[in-house]
Design brief:
Helices cover 22% and strands 34% of the residues. With 705 residues, the chain is α+β, with helices and mostly antiparallel strands.
């Protein structure tokens, strides 16, 4: 075998696995937060080759990571917007101190304005033309150990905002805005793309030894690499959604073989298998051979630049280019000869922490940092990753889950009657999908199954009894004839209306209802996982019935979201968030101070629906706080020197919980920072709509200035 699962925890997270060379890896998670705490790889208790440990703050930011094998550790600090402000490496190897630190500074738009290991960044912010693209960086360090040999750089861009010049590098782009070629002196790297705009060939020319290396990509499973007279075949082996091994076969000769003559065949190069091992971000940090020997260690700075495998700083004059694979930071392909990382959608420069082209997507319209189209994961690279090169992975739930959660939250407060439930489920799913896709057909395809399956859920009437078990209306129990027929009819109608087969849809709906029992959950990540399982079941059954996999998958997913899991959306669940307001006032303006803004928070901006009472400093007062006129949530509100703290009382839907609202100074202006934590049946809903609740409250304070 190449890979075998040893254990998973109750949440389904992988806690132990073993690869083909016998190396075993154990991962420890926090049962409460889900944070990955430790990664240990060993053959036995005395032969450990990896021992990584991580620590986190209350906002889920990584505050420390430790390499117990090399003895080095890193500490991290963040600003009020959760942006990385410092990484500090400490420790000794063989009694030599290798401590160093990097500081990061940003402007209010999320632009890096200084990176101490790089230099000072300049932007066109004043002109309003591409305010997020650096036009120069002064003071780049070419020797980090002595901080000498500074080199200034200038950058130019085309009309699309894509970088075309980087001092000694020239970049050309395709018509669909993906990099076509990189040229550095006499060296070049060229990519060719297929009809689906994914790269299928890379040609690298290297002038130092007059070498041309041609790589052909066959999806993610095979690469053919030709260099001079040798051809290398790399077969990529996946398990649990991750690349776990590379099998390499080499034709003819290489440096390890002998050249063929007219009378003597070339000495063959043995096939080899290499196993890949990852850190908490999914970056490759260790490669082992078939016998378990360490072939290579890799490591990266916070923003993804390669460094020495034991976490020591690298020398910019001696770039690190791994011999076995160009995959590295968060699993992406490095263009090491040019110093970039190809993240599929876009190319990223890890030295300056910026993308070379603009992101066409705005990930979170309520987060001002999302409007910076060149920043990497909102400048928090220890917390988030960017799997596609477009809009990083910040663990936001899928649109289908959001639609289902919003629908159930609305129903819990303002609907009574099955018809209303059906209408609202249809309307919310239609609206969310239309906003996301702009397609009326796609919106109908989301709204129709949502409404139908919500209606079936209403007919079934499942409720949690005093015994903790689900109780359904008579005749509507799971697997009953009524339930199977209803789900079958709904699946058939949906597929028929979307151009598919009624029969295949009926089979996917009814049989999927019978066999699909992924479990119920109120946690977004578990809902997403269960939805995927139900989609596969529905799609497979649809194919068996002669229909399309995609149509059956949609039926299975919506049946689970708006029917099976509906009764569990409001189980106890945490909400934990932080957000910033727009600027309230400039500190240079008369009357603008922390004290004055704090007073206005206490007067009009303490909580939604605040009455005219002004909070007394340090005195607790009882209020009814709610964002909606038809609900009431009791709280105790206590003023502080910078704002207010609200604590829930029994009867509040998020009890127990708290909200802290403070006036903070950033970049010469005062903002309102809101931090919330709670437990209750509306946790997901509260996380999702935090801006809808607090933006209007913040505006009342802003209007005072």
């Amino acid at each position: 075998y190449f890979y075998r699962v040893k254990s998973r925890d109750a949440a389904g997270r992988l806690t132990g696995h073993i690869v083909g060379n016998g190396l075993s890896t154990e991962q420890e998670y926090s049962p409460a937060s889900g944070h990955l705490y430790t990664i240990k790889s060993n053959f036995n208790s005395t032969n450990q080759i990896r021992n990584l440990e991580y620590e986190y703050d209350l906002m889920n930011n990584v505050t420390q990571r430790q390499n117990h094998i090399s003895g080095l550790s890193e500490g991290f600090t963040y600003d009020a917007l959760d942006r990385l402000t410092q990484s500090s490496t400490t420790g000794k190897i063989d009694d030599v101190d290798y401590s160093y630190k990097v500081d990061y500074q940003y402007d209010i738009n999320g632009n890096i304005i200084n990176k101490s290991d790089v230099g000072d960044y300049s932007y066109n912010a004043a002109s309003g033309v591409r305010p997020h693209t650096p036009n120069s960086i002064t003071g780049i360090k070419t020797n980090t150990s002595t901080n000498t040999n500074n080199q200034d750089r200038t950058y130019t861009y085309d009309a699309n905002g894509s970088m075309t010049k980087n001092n000694d590098k020239t970049i050309q782009w395709t018509s669909f805005n993906k990099p076509k070629s990189f040229t550095k002196g006499k060296d070049s790297t060229t990519f060719t793309y297929g009809p689906d705009r994914s790269r299928y060939q890379k040609v690298q020319t290297r002038s130092s030894d007059n070498t041309t290396i041609t790589t052909q990509y066959f999806g993610k499973i095979y690469e053919k690499i030709k260099q001079n007279t040798n051809t290398e075949h790399k077969h990529f082996i996946y398990a649990d959604g991750q690349l776990i091994a590379i099998h390499i076969k080499t034709d003819t000769t290489s440096a390890a073989g002998t050249s063929a003559t007219s009378n003597t065949p070339a000495t063959p190069i043995p096939d080899k298998t290499r196993y890949l091992h990852y850190d908490n971000l999914g970056s490759i940090d260790t490669i082992t051979d078939g016998q378990g020997n360490i072939v290579e260690r890799m490591a990266y700075t916070a923003f993804g630049q390669r460094r020495k495998g034991d976490w020591r700083a690298s020398d910019p004059l001696l770039p690190i280019i791994p011999a076995l694979t160009n995959r590295g930071f968060t699993g992406h392909e490095h263009i090491d000869e040019m110093g970039f990382i190809h993240m599929n959608g876009r190319v990223y420069d890890p030295q300056i922490g910026r993308f070379l082209s603009a992101d066409p997507h705005i990930q979170d319209p309520y987060n001002t940092q999302s409007y910076n189209r060149y920043s990497y994961v909102m400048n928090n690279p220890l917390k988030y990753t960017d799997p596609s090169g477009y809009a990083g992975n910040t663990n936001y739930p899928s649109l289908a889950v959001i639609a289902a959660e919003i629908t159930k939250a609305i129903l819990a407060d303002i609907t009574a009657g099955l018809f209303s439930q059906v209408v609202i489920a249809y309307a919310v799913s239609y609206a969310v999908t239309y906003i996301a896709t702009g397609s009326g057909k796609a919106a109908q395809g989301a709204g129709l199954p949502a409404g139908l399956f919500m209606g079936i859920g209403g007919l079934r009437g499942g409720k949690v009894g005093a015994d903790g078990k689900m109780h359904y209306n008579p005749g509507w129990e799971p697997g009953s004839m009524k339930t199977l027929v209803a789900h079958g009819l709904a699946g058939g109608i949906v597929q028929d209306r979307m151009g598919g087969s009624f029969g295949a849809g009926f089979l996917a709906g009814s049989a999927g209802s019978y066999f699909g029992s992924s479990g119920k959950s109120g946690k977004a990540n578990e809902i997403i996982g269960n939805t995927a399982i139900e989609a596969v079941i529905g799609g497979t059954i649809s194919v068996v019935g002669g229909g399309k996999f995609a149509n059956g998958a949609q039926t299975g997913a919506f049946r689970y979201l708006f029917n099976d899991s509906a009764d569990h959306f409001f189980a106890q669940g945490n909400h934990d968030y932080k957000m910033m307001s727009e600027a309230v006032c400039s500190t240079s303006s008369p009357g603008c101070s922390i004290a004055s803004v704090a007073l206005q928070i206490q007067t009009v901006g303490a909580f939604p629906g605040q009455d005219s009472r002004v909070l007394n400093n340090g005195t607790a007062q009882k209020f009814s706080a709610s964002a909606f006129s038809f609900t009431s949530d009791p709280i105790i509100s206590i003023s502080t020197s910078t704002g207010v703290i609200n604590i829930t009382l029994p009867g509040h839907r998020l009890d127990p919980g708290w909200i802290a609202r403070d006036a903070v100074v950033m970049y010469g202006s005062i903002y309102i920072r809101t931090r919330g934590y709670g437990q209750g049946s509306y946790g997901f809903f509260n996380n999702l709509l935090k801006h809808s609740v607090w933006d209007s409250v913040d505006q009342k304070v802003i209007d005072k200035y």
